[in-house]
Amino acid sequence: MTLPAQSMIDTVHSYVAAFERGDAGAVAALYAEDAVVRDPMDAPPIKGRDAIRAFYERSMATGAKLALSGPVRTTASVAAFAFSVHLTLPTGEGRIDVIDTFEFNPDGLIQQMTAYWGPNNMHGFEEQA
């Protein structure tokens, strides 16, 4: 299955814009009802649109902001994109560098999102004196 590249790119931009607005419902609407989120990829899967909406509600409650780091890459029915998450944790302000992949279903909805990041991608967050 191959989807139009621009359609996948538009979905990525809609995802970032909805996250920036703090609209977890709009983010969840980009996903299939039975979608799966792995964030980070070695975490237990989050399954289903309602659980995905709740995941984004918790993420947005941290005040996190997203910034794309270059163009969206597409092939067949997958989009990959690098971005940074800027947020404040109890240990201070910092940034997490992430690469996400969206695997799309034939209807153009996200079937699976996988986020690639780990402790070595976290910058800042040191104790503020």
Protein described:
The protein has 129 residues and is of the alpha+beta class. It has three helices and eight strands. Strands 1, 2, 3, 4, 5, 6, 7 and 8 form an eight-stranded mixed β-sheet that branches. The radius of gyration is 15 Å and the shape is globular. The model has no long low-confidence stretch (mean pLDDT 95).
Q: How would you summarize what this structure contains?
A:
With 129 residues, the protein is of the alpha+beta class. The chain has helices spanning 5-21, 24-29, 49-61, and strands at residues 31-38, 46-47, 65-68, 73-75, 78-89, 92-104, 110-116, 122-124.
Rg is 15 Å
Specify the biggest β-sheet.
8 strands, mixed
Low-confidence stretches: none
Q: Alpha-carbon distance between the termini?
A: 53 Å
E-strand count: 8
Principal-axes shape call: globular
Listing every helix as H and every strand as E from the N terminus to the C terminus, the arrangement reads HHEEHEEEEEE
Name the beta content range: 35-45%
Can you give the mean pLDDT?
A: 95
- Number of H/I helices: 3
Structural category: alpha+beta
Proportion of helical residues = 25-40%
